[in-house]
Amino acid sequence: MPKKTKERQPKPSTEAEEKLLFDLRVHQIELEMQNEELLHTRAALEASHNRYLNLYEFAPVGYLTLNSEGDIIEINLTAAALFGEERNNLLNRNFTGLIAPEDCDRWYLLLKRVLQHENEKKNFELRLKRGKSAFHARLDCLPIISDDQSLLLRITLTDITESKHAEQELRIAAVAFEAQEGIMITNADKVILRVNQAFTNITGYSSEELIGQMPQLFKSGRHNAAFYAEMWECVNRTGSWQGEIWDRRKNGDIYPKWITITAVKDCNGVVTHYVGLHTDISERKASEEEIKLLAFYDPLTGLPNRRLLLDRLQQALATSSRNNKYGALLFIDLDNFKSLNDNLGHDMGDILLQQVAHRLITCVREGDTVSRQGGDEFVIMLEDLSDHSEEAAAKAKTIGEKILLSLNQAYQLNNHEYKNTPSIGITLFINHQHSINTLLKRADIAMYGAKAAGRNTLRFFNREMHEIVTERAALEADLRFALSKNQFQLYFQRQERQDGSVIGAEVLLRWKHPERGFVAPAEFIPLAEEIGIIVPIGLWVLEATRAQLERWEAHEQTRHLQLAINVSARQFHKTEFTEQVCTVLKKTAFNAVRLKLEFTESLVFEDINDTIAKMQKLKEFGVSFSMDDFGTGYSSLTYLTQLPFDQLKIDQSFVRNIGIKPTDTVIVQTIIGMAKNLGMEIVAEGVETQEQRKFLELHGCHIYQGDLIGKAMPLAEFERSLGI
Ligand code: C2E
Ligand code: CA
Ligand code: CA
């Protein structure tokens, strides 16, 4: 511009003009300078504005401004990013739409409260939406008045999801730390830093006693140094170790625990801590032991149970097929065990079983298995007997006989002296010739063979026996229904005096089977005893006999007749036996002496105390007693004098041998003499010949029963023989 001015001044100006010109120039320069300054300031201002914008938009926290309606009127990019939306989509939207539904109600309340207190900062946490998910945010709110006097809310928004998470983790960790399991934390040098409550419970030490100590404190001495060295080597190599360890509690108890040790490493992989999880497994271990015992051993006798026997039998078969040697199974069943249980109670039965178990063990070698199958059944497995079947059988027989002898010794059951016998079935085994089940079945069948042979004996398995047992099973099935189908009948066998006058009869039971015809008592009575139905059958006999005596009571010719019934041990020793007889007798008008009960010696001495008590009770009622089959059992004379028997019956086996077997002849004489001394009546049964009768008469026996006198016969025939 000065240049231009120069061009426009063709001629020199006046002084005043020059002064004015000069002032103008100064002013111009000033203006120019001011302008430049202004430009500078503007640039600086612009830069500052941009800096502010950057700060605002990209601040680490979100900023937004709401109007009093809650609409977003300003929001920075950070906040928009937190919501995962374009800023444009957010402007003018109501903030409520960005709040997770579960927090909306809270937001309304908070907003209301915040807006009431202008210039007062409030902060709270809310869950906000981000797309379909949500995040935890902290909101710092400041209500302000805008230039146009409207109420605004400035909010600073911080995503606190991560710290929330961490907080939660901490809470979980704290709960977990106080869990049921013991936790011990050590530093890298294994110095204990922290333990939880469970840990102090397990070890018995307080946490004060433990902190600063080393875990060696717990050593039980059950593991050697190599064990611990290996353990730590594993922790350091793989990062963890777990296993069972025996430790010692503060009180000195040694106990098993399950431990998991984990190494905690820093970001450089250097171990900083060890965390040990300790679970006391002493109880679990104890119950495991118990379960094992229960699973394989019989709790009453401590003998292996059926399962363990099957297991060992399987192994034995494998061994025998390797060494080609015979083994044997002995099936042992106690005779009359049920009646002991019924009469003396299960406690006594249990004691007997324990004593039997003990005796059986003493009869076999160490390696043999004595097992209890349940009830009164035992199975013994003998191994490695011989490579010849005959020799193996002989050895098994020897052991079987040893068992018979041992189990025949009297038992002491508390105050009771008790006698019992076993029946033993034996079968041999070798290789895998027969299955385990077949072998057990064979031993069982052989045992029934022993029972059928009169009990207290042993039998080996054979085919024939198998058939007998099958037949017996069929008979048993039918017998169970015989009573309800009215298939029983009473037979009467006359008993008379020397002069031919009739005393009465022995009542003998008959089973009229629809196909088999008459089944003899010798065949079905033992079976009925075995399966427990002798009691109702016996009761039926008693009742039918009472009814007969009742009918005879009505007639002059028959009013004096006596009837003798046979009573089984199982029936007699039942608690309610006396009661049952008394109840039946109470219904009668006849003299109770007309009812005679026949007992065998084995019945009487099976439980002598019970016998004495019951006989005395029944005697008060007036019942008569006869000692049946006398001379065949093991009568104790001392006891015999204490029992109120009215009569002794000489067993028919002796009568049969009169004049044939001199010893039996002598026995008959002795029995007659004894009965006289004891003041008892003497009867001979099985009298078949005049010679026998004469001999008996000669030696002082004046009452007879037998085919010579009269066979057992049905009622009508019997009454006819009496001449009625
Ligand atoms: P027991 O008590 O010894 O009965 C005598 C058995 O010998 C009867 O056999 C009878 O028929 C038979 N007998 C009698 N005289 C002679 C003779 O001169 N020669 C021969 N060879 N035998 C003779 P039974 O009727 O077969 O009875 C057998 C056994 O069955 C009885 O022996 C008895 O122990 C039992 N019994 C019979 N009836 C009953 C009953 O109602 N209840 C119970 N528990 N057992 C019974
Ligand atoms: Ca009899
Ligand atoms: Ca008899």
Keyword list:
eight-stranded mixed beta barrel; Beta-Lactamase; 724 residues; 47% helix; five-stranded antiparallel sheet; single chain; Alpha-Beta Plaits; binds calcium ion; alpha+beta; binds ligand C2E; 27 helices
Could you explain the architecture of this structure?
The protein is an alpha+beta fold and 724 residues long. The chain contains 27 helices and 27 strands. Helix content is 47%, strand content 25%. It has an eight-stranded mixed β-barrel with strand order 18-19-21-22-23-24-25-26. It has a five-stranded antiparallel β-sheet with strand order 2-1-5-4-3, with helices on both faces. Strands 7-6-10-9-8 form a five-stranded antiparallel β-sheet. α13 crosses α14. The model is unreliable at 1-6 (pLDDT under 50).
Secondary-structure blueprint of this entry?
Layout: H1 2-7, H2 15-58, E1 62-67, E2 72-75, H3 77-83, H4 87-90, H5 101-116, E3 122-130, E4 133-145, E5 151-159, H6 161-177, E6 182-187, E7 192-195, H7 197-203, H8 207-210, H9 225-238, E8 240-248, E9 254-265, E10 271-280, H10 282-296, H11 306-323, E11 326-334, H12 337-344, H13 346-363, E12 369-374, E13 377-386, H14 389-408, E14 411-413, E15 416-418, E16 422-429, H15 436-452, E17 458-460, H16 463-482, E18 488-497, E19 502-513, E20 517-519, H17 521-530, H18 534-553, E21 562-566, H19 569-572, H20 577-586, E22 595-599, H21 601-606, H22 608-621, E23 624-630, H23 637-642, E24 647-650, H24 652-656, H25 662-678, E25 681-684, H26 690-698, E26 703-705, E27 713-714, H27 715-721
Parallel strand pairs: 16-17, 19-21, 21-22, 22-23, 23-24, 24-25, 25-26
Antiparallel strand pairs: 1-2, 1-5, 3-4, 4-5, 6-7, 6-10, 8-9, 9-10, 11-13, 11-16, 12-13, 14-15, 18-19, 18-26, 18-27, 19-20
Helix pairs in contact: 12-13, 13-14, 15-16, 18-20, 20-22
